[in-house]
Amino acid sequence: MDFALTPEQRDLRERVIRFARDELGAKAAEHDRDESFDRDGWKACAEFGVLGWPVPAEYGGSGHDPLTTIIACEALGYGCADNGLAFAVDNHLWACVIYLLRHGSPQQRARFLPGLVDGTLIGAHALTEPETGSDMLSLTTTAQRDGDAYVIDGAKCFISNGTVADLYVLFARTARSGPAQQALSAFLLPRDTPGLEVRRAISKAGLRGTPMGELRLTGCRLPAENLLGAEGAGYRVFTSVIEWERGFMAAGQVGRLQRLLETSVAYANDRTQFGVPIGAFQAVSHRLADLRVNLELARLMLYKVGWLKREGRIALLEASILKLFAGESLLEGALAAMRVHGARGYVADLPIEREVRDALAAPTFGGTSDIQRTIIAGLTGLPEGSHGA
């Protein structure tokens, strides 16, 4: 078992880190304060090729294999000081582009992928509703077939990239009866579709450079050719892609965890109290030792998920373990970094307090930590109902 990166992967990782440090995040504090989207940073990511890492060359992408892509995403999370911008990229790739790659027809891919790769289109995922949360099978948004179109009515909320997106992967109910798993369908919904309204931007504690929005669909008439997969296959489409979203979006978290560790170690070696560096105090050194342990374990799980997907294998269990562990470790690591920095970690003119706010969402988005524990318990063989819901 060889854990070494290939020369090509090492070179890509180094180039991504240099790019992210040199060209991204200079105005991270400003975008956080104003809750604004960094369009210049988005364009730079597109020009560097970030938005096409997993996309075949025929659509303008790099065609990287899943493991190489996950290594590049980790490097972006490590090098980019604007966690909001990096998270917007993650949502674009792993909650929109991946659906086209896995389930899009040749016509749909040709229509949308080039724009998603070159940055002229921004992607988003319109699943969550005000009352359903993680209960996907209870969605109330409806899509009624009417000739060569579907008429969609409903509301979606907490949509990352929602206010700036040009294309939404939307889930709606197409059957009023029968098995719940066969009642939902997935659609590709352009922003300019009549009847679609971006109702409001939603303010949030962290990742404020990723705009969050609420959508309203009223008699929204969408051509039937925008159906993603077969009618009634929405649940299967979602479950076949969610391991990509959960697993690959964790890459940026692992990168951020390494950045937090390095920043905290540097501060602990430089800051002196009582005549010695604070890193000499066991309370500080043990805290950072725990952060290092979590980083190494999260990275091993991250690369395992990337390897499994490169080999064309299912990674549902591994993606849930990674999502749970990386998200909880990032939040724990951000709080540890704040404690190591003391008052300097709390004040708003330094980035550590922003790192804490950005980490707050890690155990929630993409399926909460409790949902991941439920999935893990079920895949471990525990009987249904014994591990909560």
From TrEMBL:
Its cofactor is FAD. InterPro entries: Acyl-CoA_Oxase/DH_mid-dom, Acyl-CoA_Oxase/DH_mid-dom_sf, AcylCo_DH-like_C, AcylCo_DH/oxidase_C, AcylCoA_DH/ox_N, AcylCoA_DH/ox_N_sf, AcylCoA_DH/oxidase_NM_dom_sf. Its EC number is 1.-.-.-. Gene3D superfamilies: Acyl-CoA dehydrogenase/oxidase, N-terminal domain, Butyryl-CoA Dehydrogenase, subunit A, domain 2, Butyryl-CoA Dehydrogenase, subunit A, domain 3. Residues 124-219 form the Acyl-CoA oxidase/dehydrogenase middle domain. Residues 6-119 form the Acyl-CoA dehydrogenase/oxidase N-terminal domain. Residues 232-377 form the Acyl-CoA dehydrogenase/oxidase C-terminal domain. Keywords: FAD, Flavoprotein, Oxidoreductase. One of its GO terms (molecular function) is oxidoreductase activity. Belongs to the acyl-CoA dehydrogenase family. This is Acyl-CoA dehydrogenase family protein.
